[in-house]
Q: What sequence folds into this?
């Protein structure tokens, strides 16, 4: 038999206060004898507590609990009321704390890889740059000077042009999803992209030095998701032809293609209707938009696929196991009428297309630089992590790979368990074994893991989210240098590009146009102003670190200031090298919003504890 523990005086006070409250609420239902018994025991317990007679208080408290069980039983309605008010109190406190103080979040997608990964658990502070008004897209206080470019910020998806932004909080209350991205541009900034890097000037015309810090040096940035961006077509059409077509980048109207009554495609830039260009902008062609001409989209093709589906030819190109096809310089000139992936017959942008022969050494370099989205394998079929495998028709096969979940980063394969913990795989694992076919599959399909991205026709719009660019004359894929400028393959490629540009109408060579710097190596502010993207007032530009698999400002546009809710402070799961502070500029500690919220929280907690303590000690009156 276990000996029953003796109640402390503090616990006896809680029993006294709790039973006394219930007694006052229910005493009308008691007989005079029952009332007398309760009052006698209540008085005895109070006297014992005042005299600090622990044994007597313990005996009286337990007797009082027995009486309560006999005569003050809670009805079903009482239980419902208690649960209701307890839940209401918990929800109110949770909402205030999560909206104004701090919040625990789980990262659902890989849009911020490798900084944040799926199933990461993080702490978000809501006081890093402002004081939020609960349940509203407003701030009591906001200081944009506390926001640093490169910071990881949490913001609401409310009023953003994106699908499926609604969700339920606490499984009951409708709300909007919160997004986690890296802050790139602040109001008044003008930005330009080159070589996976960002260059810019702020609202005062000064160079943005933050782009030269490690927070940007170690992360690639691509200025678009697809060259066409969002395509808006009319709801009505004639003779199966959709026209005019408007192209949006950063969710801003950029260009329009229209089919005339004579069947010709006519195009125009409509940048004058957009607020993202400076007054002295000199953008004359689609590919001039904030550095698009510095980038290409690429896929790896076999010789047979090149001959069937590419707009370039193998003439004057060295024989190779595989070829890298580059699509670049999107333009309105020479626009074509095509049938797109939705079956719409419409005008589309014209492109220049180049081919790069990939010898075994080049393919090995690509394989060593490989990164993919997190994915799972079942019966050798690969699919995106978090998605379901209902139909294998559009799923690629990874022969020899066992069932499980994986990811590849910088050419190294990792396994992923149910808790999001990753473990590096041995060198002899099948995912680490180089082959031409494995390299081609992982490069082309390793972001979306859908086979409709494989080549199947000419002028195909659905191509892999893989990007290529030059940086200081070297050629880069997936953030890694694949060819140095002295490489013979690269030299021959550049020579072919210049030859094609001189002989083919409208063709633009894919070459290194250089960073926006003057002869002294300093930022050329005029170039930034002429070709850059300007961030509107009270708007912010956010990008995901995983540029190939992120829906961000390139898709839904700029984020209003009122949507900004907090900053990511700490990664506490899973245990790894990333545990702790996230890769970002540190937020300041002693700032006005933090002082106000933290001190208010401590004052409220202290007042509550003092009130409860005094309430428990306060003598009862019968």
A:
């Amino acid at each position: 038999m276990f000996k029953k523990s003796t109640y402390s005086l503090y616990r006896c006070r809680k029993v006294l206060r709790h039973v006394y409250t219930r007694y006052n609420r229910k005493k009308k239902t008691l007989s005079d004898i029952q009332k007398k018994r309760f009052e006698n025991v209540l008085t005895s317990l109070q006297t014992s507590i005042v005299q600090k007679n622990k044994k007597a208080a313990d005996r009286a408290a337990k007797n009082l609990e027995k009486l309560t069980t006999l005569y003050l039983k809670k009805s079903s309605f009482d239980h419902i009321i208690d649960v209701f008010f307890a839940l209401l109190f918990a929800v109110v406190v949770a909402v205030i704390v999560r909206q104004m103080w701090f919040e625990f979040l789980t990262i659902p997608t890989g849009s911020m890889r490798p900084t944040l990964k799926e199933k990461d658990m993080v702490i978000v502070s809501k006081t890093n740059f402002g004081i939020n008004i609960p349940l509203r897209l407003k701030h009591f206080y906001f200081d944009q000077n506390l926001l640093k470019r490169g910071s990881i910020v949490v913001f609401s998806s409310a009023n953003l042009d994106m699908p499926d932004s609604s969700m339920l909080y606490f499984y009951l209350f409708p709300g909007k999803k919160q997004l986690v991205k890296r802050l790139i541009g602040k109001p008044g900034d003008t930005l330009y992209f080159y070589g996976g890097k960002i260059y810019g000037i702020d609202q005062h015309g000064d160079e943005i030095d933050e782009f030269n810090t490690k927070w940007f040096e170690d992360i690639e940035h691509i200025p678009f998701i697809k060259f066409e961006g969002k395509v808006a077509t009319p709801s009505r059409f004639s003779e199966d032809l959709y026209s005019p077509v408007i192209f949006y980048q950063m969710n801003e109207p950029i260009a329009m293609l229209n089919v005339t009554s004579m069947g010709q495609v006519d195009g125009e830039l409509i940048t004058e209707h957009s607020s993202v260009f400076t007054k002295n902008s000199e953008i004359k062609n689609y590919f001039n938009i904030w550095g698009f001409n510095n980038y290409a989209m690429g896929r790896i093709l076999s010789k047979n696929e090149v001959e069937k589906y590419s707009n370039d030819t193998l003439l004057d190109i060295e024989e190779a196991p595989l070829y890298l096809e580059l699509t670049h310089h999107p333009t309105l000139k020479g626009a074509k009428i095509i049938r797109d992936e939705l079956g719409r017959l419409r005008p589309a942008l014209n492109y220049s297309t180049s081919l790069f022969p990939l010898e075994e050494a080049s393919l090995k370099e690509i394989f060593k630089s490989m990164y993919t989205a997190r994915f799972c394998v079942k019966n050798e079929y690969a699919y995106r992590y978090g998605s379901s495998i209902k139909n294998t028709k559009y799923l690629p096969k990874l022969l020899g790979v066992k069932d499980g979940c994986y990811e590849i980063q910088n050419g190294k394969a990792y396994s992923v368990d149910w808790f999001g913990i990753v473990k590096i795989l041995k060198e002899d694992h099948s995912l680490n074994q180089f082959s031409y076919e494995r390299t081609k599959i992982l490069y082309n399909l390793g972001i979306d893991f859908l086979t409709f991205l494989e080549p199947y026709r000419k002028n195909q719009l659905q191509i892999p989210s893989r990007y290529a660019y030059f940086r200081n004359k070297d050629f880069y894929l997936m953030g890694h240098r694949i060819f140095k400028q002295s490489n013979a393959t690269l030299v021959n490629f550049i020579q072919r590009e210049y030859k094609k540009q001189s002989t083919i109408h409208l063709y633009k060579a894919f070459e290194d146009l250089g960073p926006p710097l003057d002869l002294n190596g300093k930022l050329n502010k005029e170039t930034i102003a002429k070709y850059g993207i300007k961030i509107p007032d009270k708007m912010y530009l956010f990008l995901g670190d995983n540029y190939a698999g992120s829906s961000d400002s390139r898709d839904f546009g700029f984020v209003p200031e009122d949507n900004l809710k907090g900053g990511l402070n700490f990664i506490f799961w899973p245990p790894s090298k990333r545990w702790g502070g996230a890769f970002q500029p540190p937020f300041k500690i002693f700032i006005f919003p933090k002082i106000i919220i933290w001190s208010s929280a401590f004052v409220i907690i202290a007042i509550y504890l003092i009130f409860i303590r005094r309430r428990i000690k306060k003598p009862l009156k019968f």
User: Anything to note?
Assistant: The CA atoms of residues 501 and 508 lie 5 Å apart. The mean pLDDT is 92.
